[in-house]
Design brief:
The protein has about 120 residues and is mainly β. Helices cover about 5% and strands about 40% of the residues. Bound molecules: zinc ion.
């Protein structure tokens, strides 16, 4: 099942990708960047949180190669990276096939194409 036909397409993160923005969460009270999936700030549980647009730049913290595909439109093998965005949060993303030489600690930037996120070398 692709993202296009999945209920997750209505999630703000994926709606942002379809508009060309990589979004992350931030606390309105303390302005701290929050991890994906957070529903409140651990320091300010009474405050609200909001989505903000990331510059899409960060550093690879881990990389793994998938030898079995979980999506029809994503043939194996493909690489997935954990990226620490410069805004302070980490997220999982696919490494672009043109970025095979990217190793852990390398600087990368998000590339969004028709709602599809991949990371390339900065
Ligand atoms: Zn807070």
């Amino acid at each position: 099942m692709s993202i296009e036909s999945s209920p997750v397409k209505d999630h703000p993160f994926y709606q942002g990708l379809h508009r060309g923005h990589l979004l992350y969460l931030r606390c309105d009270a303390c302005n701290r960047a929050l991890p994906y999936g957070a529903s409140l700030c651990p320091r300010c549980p009474e405050s609200s949180i909001r989505w903000e647009s990331s510059a899409g730049r960060g550093q690879v913290r881990a990389r793994v190669t998938f030898h079995r595909s979980h999506r029809e439109d994503l043939p194996a093998p493909y690489d997935v990276v954990v990226v620490q965005l410069d805004e302070g949060v980490r997220l999982l993303g696919r490494l672009s096939p043109v970025a095979k030489s990217v190793k852990a600690e390398a600087r990368v930037r998000a590339q969004i194409d028709h709602g599809d996120l991949a990371f390339v070398a900065e």
